[in-house]
Each structure stands twice: as C-alpha cells, then as structure tokens.
Amino acid sequence: SRQSVWRYCLSMVLTGLWPQPALVLAAGSGICLSPSSFRVDLVQGLSPRAAERLQRAFKRLKGHIFNSPSRAHTHLQVEGGVEWLAQLSVRVASSDLRLTVRTNESYELTVNLSGAQLLAPTVYGALHGLETFSQLTSPLANCGVGINASTVFIQDAPRFRWRGLMLDTARHFLPVPTLTGMLDAMSYNKLNVLHWHISDSQSFPLATRKTKALARGAFAPHLVYTTSDVQAVIAFAADRGIRVVPELDSPGHATSWSLGYPNATLPQCHTTDPTANATFALLADLVSEVSALFPDEFFHIGGDEVDFNCWNNSERVVAYMSRHNLPRNNTGFKELTVQYIGRVASLLGEQGKTVIAWQEAMDHYGPTAANPTPPSPQLPANAVIEQWLEPEWNWANLSAITGEGYLGRPDARWPAGFQGFEALVTLGWYLDAVADLNSWEAVYVREPLTNQSCTYDSHHREVSCECKCPSGPWRDDKCHCYDLRGKADAAAKVLGGEAPIWGEHIDASNLESRAWPRASAVAERLWSAMELNNATAATPRMLKHRCRMLERGVRVTPLGPGFC
C-alpha cells in the first residue's frame, strides 16, 4: 500500500521528502553527485521560452544540491564502492506555459546507477519533480553529496489543484524582495497559488493609471506597488509554478479608498458606498486595469464583514433603501449587499474573470428561520466561495457551499437545480495566530473535507472524530459535523485551500518565521494522500525539511532543540 511504501522509505533514510509523494520506491546503498561532472539536460525540443524557464530551474537545482552550508557535516555515507550519478535527463511533453487551475502538475522520477530521468506532461510538473530530486540529496561523508539509495522510483501528483498562501500587504507593506522570498519558500513546498490581499481599510498600496487617486490611501507615497513591481512578482512566481490571484476587498474593508474617492465610500462604515453611481464608475475602471495587470483567470472580490449597523445610520444608504423599497433591517441590508456583489461580479465577467468571494457573499443568500428555502444565489455559477467561518457562526459551511446540504436543518436547502459552488478551505489554517506558532501538528491534521477533529493510530487509521457542539436558534442537542469524504460530487467541488497570513502584527521582519513551517504542514495536507495524516510519523521529515529551508535562506521557526 501507499502507507507501507512510505514507512519503507523512512527505513531507507529518505526522510526529507516534503510534501510526501504519492508513490516512492527505494533500494540500494547510495549514489554520489559531483558538482564538476553532474549535468541536468533537457532531452527533447521545447519552445525557447519553455526551455529557458526550465534552464533557470536547473540552475536553482544545482545551487540547492551543491551550495548548502551543511553539506560537509554528516555521518551518513555510501556503503561499499562509490558510484557517481552523471546526469538527470528531463523530458517534458508540452511547451505550453499557461498556468491555470487545470494545469497537470504530475511527474515521474527515476534514479539508478545508469542515470536519472524526470518525465512530466508540463513544465510545471517538471518543476515539482526537480524540487523532489533536490530533496533526495543529502550530505554523504565519503563523497560530499549524494542520494542515500541507488535506485529510486517516484510517481507523484497533487491531491488538490489549489494550494495557496494568502499574504496581506495592506496592514503592513511587504517589499517586493519579501514577496519573492516567500514565493521561493512556497516552491520548496509545492504550493501553487499566491492569494495577494492587496488592499484593506488600513492602506491601498497599488499604483494604478485609471484610478491613481486610490494610492493616496497608501501608508506613504513610496509604499506602493508599481505596475513593474506587480509584473516582476508575477513573473517570479510563474518561474516557480505559482499563480498570483489579486484581491481587492469591498464593500467592507475599504476605508483607505476614501482618501482618493470620498464620493464612492462611507469611511465611517469602512465600506464603499453601495448606493452611489460614483462607486461603480470607480470599480469599472479599477477592475478593468487590475484584470489586465494580473493574467490569472481568478479575481477575489472580498465581500466579507460588512457593518450593517453602520449602514443603518448612514443617511445616504437609508434614503436609497427607502427609494428602492428595501426594508431597513438585516434582510434589506443583505439584499443591498447581494446587489452590490452582483454588480462587481458582472464587471469582472466582462473582463473574462472568475469571481472568488469570502463566504459571507453566499451567506447573504442563505436560509433564515423565516425563509428556509431562499431563491438560488445570484452569483455567477462558476464563482468560488472561500470558507473561513466556523460552522457554529453561520450556515454556509462547506457542506452548504458545495450543494450537499445545510446541516441539522433538513428543510433548509437550496431549491432544486442549484448544484452548489466550487470552494476553497481556510478554516484552521490561519497562520497569523500567535498562540499556535509551534503547533504545526494541529495544522497538519486539519483535513480539508471535514470540520471534525480526528485522532489516528500508527497505521493512519481513524481512532475517533469529534467536533464542538455549536449553539444557536436552529441547533438541537446534537453535533452537526460536515464530512465530504466519500461524497464524490461535493468533494470534487473543493478546489483545495489556502493558509491566510493577516498582517496586523506581521511585516517583513517576522513574516517568514510566522508562516513556516506551519505553511509546510498545509502544503502536505493539500498535496499528499488523505491517509497520510499522522503528525508523529511525519515529524522526522518535517525536522529535516525545516533544516533544508533554513539552508536555503528561509527564516523558519524552531520546532525545539536541534543542530540546525
């Protein structure tokens, strides 16, 4: 089985692979690599741009293998006569450099005494394979560096298509070198999406041509990202197989917009003005320019944490609601939010973008005690909902988002014909949480398809699972956990997940240590098999992976006493 293969690999001292590949077979005493003779060759014709991207990756690979500061310190060695690996041959089937949520990231890696071969359908699968090859190597006392097995076979592909990290550049400005450093670290963990939370109430640090007054909301004139900055980040990310998805959060979290566009905002409510024509004129210009700047098909519109109480005290909002026969209550304010989000989604649709929104954007459509069967959501059918709220706080948990059903309330359901949305999971993976700095294990065991907390035995079998009993007017005395494992249709709608790092207390000085290695735990959970869920068994690999990231210049939080 896959699990027994994994345990066999541990016995072979191939303990440094992270995230753990789908299939690993290894045998033999070891093989050495020489910096003067080891070659990495592209053995079939690709387009010049595809070949150049891989050649840059080859250069990074050799740097990781041979330039590590710890390579001279080891007790491991090749047993018997020393054999040398001369070449890694790389074969990629396609020159297509488009990087999307549908890109095939699989690869196959073979190492033996006659050479090593990496096969991949795409450049991006090859990039992951190169990272795995680098992780196979370690210092060996009698030849400098090598692989502690002379025969290795790996087949690998990610479990989820979306494996992301969210960075917040609004609470603290993060310089471009800080962003690119995080992208490097993401590539070491096979994460493939940077969710860039660009703006928030605290600042708007993006320089735009059509809406240049928005940058008045930056902390300082020089603390903005220019078009060249953004293009550099996107290019750096693409070279490492990482997509960059922008988020411009509204209507909430938009105080910074008011410094440049007071007629389009309600600064006392920290929102854009959902009733003003000026708001949608601004959004039309902003969305068109930012959509052109970011090539990814997805665009995150936010949609979270709108202050309805403040809107209720806004003369402009109250007058608008009266003119449009919207009740001045929670139902009316939800409808106003629905209309706003629908108009923003339409603007993005005109730009060919797919909408992502925080889950409140769906909550506003959801069942209430008075109306358990509301109309179908008015978001585009291809919208993606990002889950972040605990199930006891709201009803749009993962089961509801994907159309599986509302838990504990059989009469609360979407109408026939609504199939649910695709979803992203963040619940349990907030890396800005100070209390959990060293608890990578808690992050590691968080299964994306359920809110149950499970314990496992040494064979990765569930011993017990439980979730907290929420309270509320629609709850009874039973716990209503959601679990999409084994529910193929609903589970297929979960694209993957992200680990958010909100920036209230994080800047360039502590970003890496706050993120890593807990983000590595998220990376394995999103890449590797669901059954690979025992943090104790994963600890030797995590410790070695942390040391490797330190060697590569990432400031990773210590996990306890250790030589690195």
Automatic annotation (TrEMBL):
Annotated keywords:
Glycoprotein, Glycosidase, Hydrolase, Signal
Task: Report the domain of life of the source organism.
Answer: Eukaryota
Q: Give the signal peptide, or none.
A: 1-26
| Reactions performed catalytically | Hydrolysis of terminal non-reducing N-acetyl-D-hexosamine residues in N-acetyl-beta-D-hexosaminides
A Pfam family hit: Glyco_hydro_20
Under PANTHER family, the record lists: BETA-HEXOSAMINIDASE, BETA-HEXOSAMINIDASE A
Full protein name: beta-N-acetylhexosaminidase
